[in-house]
Design brief:
mainly beta; four-stranded antiparallel beta sheet; about 0% helix; about 35% strand
Length: about 140
């Protein structure tokens, strides 16, 4: 079956973030990053979340494992706290699995080796999640 990949590039950590201001240039070489998007079936149009990760400045990207039930999910944003901990958000097409919560939050503490879909509180069952971010020493 033919599929096409449409990636909405939401890079949480830059491939190589080099500032162009004097001494700052050598301080921000970051080699770990993620992108999030969805892979859609060309015949049905039903998307499935895809998350890719790299550890070498963008030379090699690997697909991350996701929990079951990602069919019909539209991916919007991903944010990493460090090289292992990251959160991603998106929402489900209402025509695919309508009994499930509309919004979705994914979490990994293993650098993407394992990814868990988080439970959505009752008051947020119909929310489309668009952004996720963190405040801390690395942000």
């Amino acid at each position: 079956m033919k599929k096409w990949i449409s990636f909405t590039f939401a890079i949480c950590l830059s491939l190589v973030m080099l500032a162009s201001c004097g001494d700052v240039e050598s301080q921000y070489v970051i080699t770990t990053g993620w992108v999030i998007g969805e892979e859609s079936d060309i015949n049905t149009g039903i998307p499935t979340v895809k998350i890719l990760k790299m550890n070498n400045g963008g030379q090699t990207w690997t697909t991350q494992a996701l929990p079951d039930g990602c069919a019909g999910m539209l991916a919007n944003d991903i944010s990493a706290y460090d090289n292992n901990v990251a959160w991603a958000v998106g929402f489900r097409m209402s025509t695919v699995q309508p009994a499930l919560p509309k919004g979705a939050i994914f979490f990994t503490s293993s650098g993407g080796i394992n990814c868990e879909q988080q439970k959505i509180p009752a008051e947020a069952q119909n929310v489309d999640f668009w952004k996720v971010s963190f405040v801390g020493a690395r942000r």
